[in-house]
Design brief:
2 copies of one chain form a homodimer.
Chain A lengths: L4 H18 L4 H17 L1 H12 L3 H24 L6 E3 L13 E7 L2 E5 L13 H9 L2 E5 L5 H17 L7 E4 L2 H9 L3 E7 L2 H13 L6 E4 L5 E4 L1 H20 L11 E5 L3 H12 L10 H15 L5 E4 L10 E6 H6 L12 E7 L5 H5 L5 E7 L7 H8 L2 E6 L38 E7 L20 E3 L2 E3 L10
Parallel strand pairs in A: 1-16, 3-4, 3-6, 4-5, 6-7, 8-9, 8-13, 9-12, 11-12, 13-14
Antiparallel strand pairs in A: 1-2, 2-15, 10-11, 16-17
Chain lengths: ~500, ~500
């Protein structure tokens, strides 16, 4: 079941050949490939969800929802590439009167990078795995994909891969355009192989950094789109706390316990004004009451969670408010400390407890939240809970510099797939803060621009021809032109 | 004159404070800053050109043209950011009927990265130095700039920096938004400093790779936009050669001798059908006749050129057609070899001779140019010279995979600054193949997206407010909306 080096090389070579065969395909045809994958995944939904439930301990409704998200994403990307926005097609006609001197006819289009290596995530067996956001956006971009199956849902990974390969074959996409490999050695070799031109990765900061370093050390370094760890701090103002304390705490519990806290967007730290701990305990207990529990995703993840939880909970100054624990099933835990302790041990702000645990940090009334926010490294998300008439410009400004997504009176778990979504953030949230792992903007990660200078119409790619045969939106001589407008050569 | 570590840290901290003071400034004001710099450079044109001529040995008309290009670029970027396209502002209103389940109100905008370190190039004392493309695009993006002055035009670098600082002060831009440093130690520390969030670099492959590695090794790795070396191969088809040999050779000579061959886009290798070498010599001599010569940029560059020229010219199978040489002034040189030799010594395709030398590679009639093209690494440019009725789809496809810009019956030197320009390419042409060093698209390198989720209007950045106060083009609920159209909340 483990891919050896020869098999891996063959799959990568086959993927490269498929990429070459597919690189000039019209966007509609490529969109059709994505839709075919979505259909075939849906046709096998019951089988896949059952497999996933068995391997990950995640609840079936959550898994059905995740699969629906995955197929929705494939179809959204299909419609997006049919529009052609991902090409960023730009046409500058020859202009002898151009300000810095005569310019030649020059046109730019985004082209796919080649074969992309994608590492699946443990906590999203569908949406960030075999045909998750990285694979879907790489295929949408025109790349081929070699996917490293995650050990945590290995049978599911292999079966999903079969279904994807079958779907692509059914619509006559080039053979080898998608394939799966497994094993640690194959994963490392995947990052090293000269025909691999980019990596998509979702996982831990340590594992992701090691592979990022590997990608940078190659003779030809390649972009490494790694989504790593995040604490996702939440800042509650005094005013919001006074008016809505119990509601905020109840929503906080809902968010941090979702899928047993195994989300990269789990709120890991909540800053709230000092309050009676007995009262807090009461409200938290009420909110936790009736929450269903389940085993964590797998043994390795469980060990990691136990280790980080024990590290944080045994620090001097950190009190266990709700102990959580349990052998096969992990009950949610809440730790509590003060800003004094945070200032003495800023490392507390960097310790992700990946699982059902969170830390409340109590601040004194009048304390400056901006200074606390400044202590954070890069985050996927940061949230504020405040009243409409409060001015949080400075706090939002500091969080903006450290985060990919900012939320206001909302919770970071649940990442919708839209045009505006950004799921990224400065390191260590990701290894490429300019890129998103979710939303249609994810497609652009796997493309790069090429300019065609003084080219005859016969050899221009369709996206750049004057008659715009693909009917895409383009920028022509500085002006954006919708496909319905005529835009021949301007004088 | 050399910046010590304390001075450097102070300049970076001051730049960071200026970035923070300036980050919410309206695009029109920022555009005004760029225009003020352009004006002040023009006001000091004679002084600057004289200084540059003295330090670089480049001819005055070339230097005047380069300065004009630099100020044009500043003004083009100013008008570009006033349009607001660089924000990629995207608004998705709350939608309970969204395909994967209800979505919150989510909006995305590009924000500046922070302080950018910019390394000046030896061969473009204006256009790729103090206020060249990297600095201009970083300032346009909303970043602050700390510039490492190049030793090759040190006095010019210091003086230009003063003029830039003066211009920024005259329009009340925050103090510290631009500053200059010098010395090797300062350069390394610039890459390491935690407040530096990106690097722009133009220079040699070895120097650039060393700094790229340094940027990757940081606790928080940062994007390194390095423009390194390129051979810029030119492929002449048999048909074009038969019909236009002498014209092609004459244009080739014009291109490779421009500014003494000290361009990253110099055509370093030309593939042409086998021809009588005596005849070739005749045509080349005629074309070279009357070309003015000048000393190379500086002694260090001269030594590098001599070394690489001697390495290539003494390889077995390489013949010196035109010897070039000379002590203080370097005369242009032409080497010649065959595809047989190339196949035996593919390293020949990777040896950039930065200066007035080029290599003709003769191929046999009927030989497959595609196979030769496949031997190349990443290039800034690749060119073909062919007749209109020839089908070069395969050759262009292979070159597309290896190049940032493709040219047809045109020469790579002379890189116009436009909307469609792309000056980049796969490694080792650059360290970031998705980025361009020239053209308006260069601005986006120094920005990253941030999403605002469920935010009240009071705390949304202007680019994302429903009433679009900056009047920029945005994508709203999937549809691009020009500022003149109304686009309130959709249902």
């Amino acid at each position: 079941m483990i891919t050896n080096v020869n098999e891996l090389d063959l799959k990568i070579e086959s993927a490269h050949a498929a990429y070459e065969a597919a690189r000039n395909v019209a966007p509609e045809e490529r969109a059709n490939w994505l839709s075919a994958i979505a259909r075939n995944l849906e046709d096998h939904a019951s089988e896949l969800v059952a497999l996933a439930a068995k391997e990950t301990h995640l609840a079936e409704p959550r898994l059905r929802g995740e699969l629906a998200r995955t197929t929705f994403q494939l179809r959204l990307f299909a419609s997006e590439i049919a529009n052609g926005d991902h090409f960023s097609a730009t046409v500058d006609h020859k202009d002898d009167g151009w300000g810095m001197g005569p310019r030649p006819d020059i046109r730019r289009v985004n082209v796919p990078l080649g074969v992309v290596g994608v590492f699946g995530a443990s906590n999203f067996p569908f949406a960030f795995s075999v045909m998750g956001g990285d694979s879907a956006s790489a295929l949408a971009a025109g790349c081929a994909v070699v996917h490293k199956v995650h050990e945590g849902h290995f049978q599911l990974g292999l079966r999903t891969s079969q279904i994807v390969v079958q779907a692509l074959a059914s619509v006559s996409a080039p053979s080898g355009l998608f394939s799966a490999v497994s094993g640690r050695e194959a994963g490392e070799r995947l990052v090293d192989h000269p025909l691999i031109k980019a990596i998509g990765f979702t996982g831990s900061t340590s594992g992701g950094r090691a592979l990022f370093d590997r990608a940078c050390r190659r003779p030809e370094p390649i972009p490494f789109f790694g989504e790593l760890g995040s604490i996702n701090p939440v800042f509650v103002t005094e005013k919001a706390w006074t008016l809505r304390r119990d509601i905020i705490l109840s929503e906080y519990v809902d968010s941090f316990t979702l899928s047993m806290g195994q989300f990269c967007t789990k709120p890991g730290i909540l800053f709230a004004p000092t309050a009676d701990r007995g009262e807090l305990l009461e409200v938290l207990r009420r909110s936790l009451d009736g929450k269903s529990s389940a085993p964590l995703l797998n043994e390795r993840l469980r060990e990691g969670f136990d280790k980080s939880f024990s590290k944080v909970s045994t620090m001097a100054g950190v009190t266990t408010l709700i102990p959580g624990g349990g052998k096969s099933v992990s009950l949610p835990a809440v730790l509590i400390t003060t800003t004094d302790m945070i200032r003495r041990r800023p490392k507390l702000l960097r310790e992700e407890m990946f699982g059902p645990a969170t830390l409340i940090v109590q601040y004194e009334r009048g304390e400056n939240l901006v200074h606390l926010a400044e202590m954070f490294e890069g985050q996927l998300t940061s949230s504020v809970h405040a009243e409409p008439d409060e001015d949080l410009t400075d706090l939002v400004g500091v969080l903006r510099d450290r985060s990919g997504r900012l939320l206001w009176n909302a919770w970071p778990t649940g990442v919708t797939v839209t045009y505006a979504q950004h799921h990224g953030g400065p390191y260590p949230a990701t290894t490429a803060s300019g890129a998103t792992a979710v939303g249609t903007a994810a497609i652009g990660r796997f493309m790069r621009p090429v300019a065609f200078d003084s080219f005859p119409a016969s050899h221009l790619p369709p996206a750049l021809k004057d008659d715009n045969p693909w009917g895409i939106r383009r920028r022509v001589d500085g002006r954006w032109v919708n496909p319905t407008e005529t835009h021949g050569v301007t004088e």
